[in-house]
Amino acid sequence: MIRTDILIIGAGPVGLFTVFEAGLLKLHCHLIDSLPQPGGQCSEIYPKKPIYDIPGFPMILAGELVDNLMKQASPFKPGFTLGESAETIVEDGGGGYVVTTDKGTKHRAPVVVIAGGLGVFSPRKPPITELQDFEDKGVEYIVRDPEFYRDKKVVVSGGGDSALDWTYFLANGVAKEVTLVHRSQSFRAHPDSVQKVIDMAESGKIKLILDTDVVGLSGNGKLEQVYMKNKEGEETSLETDHWIPLFGLTPKLGPIAEWDLEIEKNAIKVDTVDYSTNRPGIYAIGDVNTYEGKLKLILCGFHEGTIMVQSAFKRIHPDKKNVLKYTTVQGIHGF
Amino acid sequence: MSKEEVHITVIDREGLSHEIDAPLGIGMNLMELCKAMELPVEGTCGGMALCASCQIYIESDHDLLSRNDAEQAMLDEAWHVENNSRLGCQIPISEALEGLVVRIAPE
Question: Which of the listed CATH numbers 3.30.470.30, 3.50.50.60, 3.30.450.40, 3.40.630.40 matches domain A125-247?
């Protein structure tokens, strides 16, 4: 059981900044995120996009903002449970909560803060009728362990960075045969990754099939063949052990919707006095909450987290007094 | 005096037509218009052509600016893409859209 003062669900920018603000009040934080890395949307969807409305930064790349927030939070030694999504919440009998992830990791804290943004990111699945029949029987949406593909025939689909990076990786001495299937002639991925994959195709290390979609699957109990269709409508097939469709991730509010919280338009209703929800000790900050006048902006989430930790402090230490101290006077005293 | 609104028809996934007078001059795009009208368009990435959750089909005969590279690349990885597919976030509301008819793509 992981124990902490404030359990933050969602390691996006708002969750990370909350670690800093909580740290100033000497409160420890632990973060849970379904993605394997911190940063939320900033890392997953647009790390190379410039943001212009972070106070004090005329322009900062989303990925750099996350790096800075991690650095800013580091004196307060946050704990992380990454690659797992918060699934259930139960009262612990002492006024706090126990939150369990989809992988069974348990966390206990007097205060739970939902900073879940748009929700849990899950893979975008192609609309193929037989898809479900082959999930985990040859079809995987995420490469968890490359060794799983050792000496296997693998087909990868997609035109973004993860599709190209995994194609490159698996074709370098891991899989027996790698084929990349993409609907177009151009790629969304970084130009360096594109060049690497084109070079590999030219040297025969991978097979590159362009202007083509995977449209069907077959096999006896496990995947054996993918069916493809090109822009001219010509159909072909390919024998394979695995198909890895990498078409990015899409967020869904997920299990949090079942936590008996007041939900309005897919967001959690909060009291703007302290961003508390209808359940005592559970707060919601950032894009996941809603209230009159709500703006889904990172900078508003920073404010919400800052106000929220004051209320969390009173809940965790009902007998202690807290006086606002400026960092310019006190500096930072990490844990 | 220049126009303040353009008339746009949005057909939702149930086939219902929504007649909308879209305001000009406030820098709105079709994704934002659909969201403002509470039509089921997600706009997950906020308008950066990075998610395809605002895919629509242009049903009327309007001569729109063609897809840019980012929009094309995203559509290359989306589903249910047709020749008239566009990302709503990449189409700014302008006078050229008067009478436009769009249909929201399946999820």
Answer: 3.50.50.60
- A187:B73 CB<8 A: yes
- Nearest residue in chain A measured CA to CA from B81: A183
**Summary mean pLDDT of chain A:** 95
Burial status of residue B91 (CB atoms within 10 A of its CB: 0-12, 13-18, 19 or more): buried
Helix (H) or strand (E) segment spanning residue A313: helix A298-316
Across the interface, do A183 and B79 touch by the CB < 8 Å criterion? no
Q: Which CATH number fits domain B5-104: 3.10.20.30, 3.90.1150.10, 3.40.30.10, 3.40.50.300?
A: 3.10.20.30
What is the model's pLDDT at position A46?
87
What is this structure's pTM? 0.86
CB contact under 8 A, B74 and A188: yes
CATH class entry, domain A2-122+250-330:
alpha beta
Q: What is the spatial distance between Cα A229 and Cα B32, in angstroms, rounded to a whole number? A: 34
Q: Which is it for strands A207-209 and A282-284: parallel, antiparallel or unpaired?
A: unpaired
Please, where in chain A does CATH 3.50.50.60 lie? 2-122+250-330, 125-247
Residues of B in contact with A187 (CB under 8 A): 73
Instruction: Tell whether A123 is within 8 A of chain B (Cβ).
Output: no
ipTM above 0.90, yes or no: no
Cα four-point dihedral sign A106, A78, A252, A134? negative
Classify residue A9 as exposed, middle or buried by CB count within 10 Å of its CB (0-12, 13-18, 19+). Answer: buried
| C-beta of residue A108 within 8 angstroms of C-beta of residue A2 | yes
Residue spans of alpha helices (H) in A150-214? 161-171, 191-202
**Interface contact A248-B51, CB threshold 8 A:** yes
CB-closest option in A49, A118, A186 to B48: A49
The single-letter code of the amino acid at A86 is A
Question: How close does chain B come to A23, measured CA to CA in Å?
Answer: 31
